[in-house]
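Q: A reviewer asked whether we had any structural model of the full assembly, not just the individual parts. We don't, so I'm hoping you can provide one. Inputs are below.
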Amino acid sequence: SAVISQKPSRDICQRGTSLTIQCQVDSQVTMMFWYRQQPGQSLTLIATANQGSEATYESGFVIDKFPISRPNLTFSTLTVSNMSPEDSSIYLCSVAGQTGAFTEAFFGQGTRLTVV
Amino acid sequence: GDSVTQMEGPVTLSEEAFLTINCTYTATGYPSLFWYVQYPGEGLQLLLKATKADDKGSNKGFEATYRKETTSFHLEKGSVQVSDSAVYFCALSPNNAGNMLTFGGGTRLMVKP
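A: Here is a predicted structure for the entire assembly that you could use as a starting point for your response.
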């Protein structure tokens, strides 16, 4: 299994500012994933972050708005830039870990962001 | 692209009632299928999984069978408890690695004593 720590757990931010969310994993992993869960909605994959290369963004998400860093195999950051109230969501970090013979996704507790 | 559709909630049941939460999917190839649960105030946890057609995933009394012919992965439990109150998400992964998940909209289950 994998234990994921996210910081901050929540924040209230002013529109137009940026927030960087940190994700720390207790083991080395090749791929890390960032998801967004908008209020009352499901999770949507933002991007896949591999160490040593540019993140791969899903349709509807761009690097200028959600820059991602992946400096090593246990850490990643997601920045929400130039925030607007529409960015109010829970942001979750995820990694794939081994459970027996199967690889499954593990999730952090999430960062609850409110933009005012 | 891939998509997952699950029944909208909330679903409200009395304790010991039978639960079904429907989930259907659209995907190319042979995805893996999952049910995740989010208890109040907690993070997302894997409940059960199935990686190929006709596989049955089971955990904590919950079951779901991967039905390729109907592209479905319905979640069932014979007798729910108050502690099962949570939001349940059906999801698929294009590979066997359980990552790059596509989630359904989530179904809130409320179980009353």
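A: Points you may want to mention in the reply: The mean pLDDT of chain A is 91. Chain A has no helices and eleven strands.
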